[in-house]
Amino acid sequence: MASIPKYQFSRLYEDFALSPERARLRRYVKEATWMIYGQQAEIQILIDECNAIIKKKDNAGSGSGKVVLTVTDLHHPDMYEAYPGLSEKVQLLRKKIRRHNKDACHAHTIAQYPIQSSVYSKNLLTYGLCKVGKFLPTGEDEKYYQHPPHPDTFALKDVSGLDPLTEFIVNNIESWARRFVKTKEYDEEENEIDPEFEVRNGGIRLAAIEAVVNSFTSLYAPVLFTASIAILYCIQSTKNRIVVAGVLGMILAASAQLLIPGVKRGEVFAITAAYFAIAGVYIGSIDNVGG
């Protein structure tokens, strides 16, 4: 069976530690559902057995109304003494219900994890981990680790919900990086790209991209507002100031959509309204001073 050197596995896991968005894991929803349904069947069998013990002892129920008791009607440990063998069944029933609920919570949590971004899904293929139909680190069917991402897999880190600028960079940096690789690592003798360089350096680190965009935003915001004040101050005509304020307001609204992740329309409207309120006061104060 084809294989790759073991050191590549170590490099794979090191890359995952640095960039969790590259990692892809199985959900096992099919198996988890099968397991939980099996637990429910076992629980139901135990409930029926407990109720059978109670029914056998009471035979015709309890009281003049002939009410048939079930296991959930017994609330006190001392009542178990009246039903031999019931205590052990109830203790086992409790354990199985706890295990069922815990496993159901885990399955629900895993099901909510995001599917891997297509950008990192393609990046995973560069490691060459699939041979003869198998994913080499685990021996699983390679279909779970091909592109596009399989629905029964998830990413350790979600890249959805990013601001549009970061998302644009993430979606395009792979092609930019490959152009750089082709330029810098072209082997004239072999006429090919060094595969070691491509695997080691062709990846994308989301944290680095976010840091760059955050730094840009921190610089862009004060520059935008400072430039707005300077431009409005330099314009002499009130009508022109109003028109320019409108243009600057449009730029601010577009910037909010571009640089703020998950911003809502109402929030953009509120930001723009606050800007125009301040701009209107500023324009009025300039006119009063000029007058």
UniProtKB/TrEMBL annotation:
<dbReference type="InterPro" id="IPR046529">
    <property type="entry name" value="DUF6594"/>
</dbReference>
<feature type="transmembrane region" description="Helical">
    <location>
        <begin position="219"/>
        <end position="235"/>
    </location>
</feature>
<keyword id="KW-0472">Membrane</keyword>
<feature type="transmembrane region" description="Helical">
    <location>
        <begin position="268"/>
        <end position="286"/>
    </location>
</feature>
<protein>
    <recommendedName>
        <fullName>DUF6594 domain-containing protein</fullName>
    </recommendedName>
</protein>
<keyword id="KW-0812">Transmembrane</keyword>
<keyword id="KW-1133">Transmembrane helix</keyword>
<dbReference type="Pfam" id="PF20237">
    <property type="entry name" value="DUF6594"/>
</dbReference>
<feature type="domain" description="DUF6594">
    <location>
        <begin position="12"/>
        <end position="278"/>
    </location>
</feature>
<feature type="transmembrane region" description="Helical">
    <location>
        <begin position="242"/>
        <end position="262"/>
    </location>
</feature>
